[in-house]
Amino acid sequence: MIVDRTLMKRIYSHRKAVVAHIKKRFNCDDETAETVFVEAALVIQRKKNAGGLEEVLDMEAFMAATCRNVWLKHYNKEKRIKEAVPNVERYFYDYLADRQYADDSINQLKEELFDATSKALKMLNEKCQALITYFYYEGKSMTDIARIMGFKSQAVATATKYRCFKELKDKAITIQRESY
To answer: How far is residue 132's CA from residue 121's CA, in Å, rounded to a whole number?
Structure first.
């Protein structure tokens, strides 16, 4: 990418005001606001290189608008990801909460659910067992798990964890129901 130093100087002369605007407008921290600002600056530079940028009279307002677009792009992407993968774990943890039990039997039910989960874990394939063990028992990050298990990316590891956890949940619930 060819960098227009004059354009970058002009953009960065408004950095303080635009970053403050981003922090206030989107209620984010300094690091996030700076990241959005830099991404917006790169978007403007690419636009200039492609010949799609006319003379900008109010650079501060233009940067604020570009930052808004960058922010919304990331926000919508995160929102789509969250909506695409339902929180199966939350469902599993709420399994007992949806039922009315006497206080003294809750601990027994939790023990039964733990036992069912332990049995279900042994029924999973080795890859799922390892992934669930790394994440839930050892507390490893999805990035570390992806590296350790040879996944192409963190996203692949996360999708696999979701599938494995869903399978674990289904097996545990079946085992628990059969034990009644």
So the answer is: 8
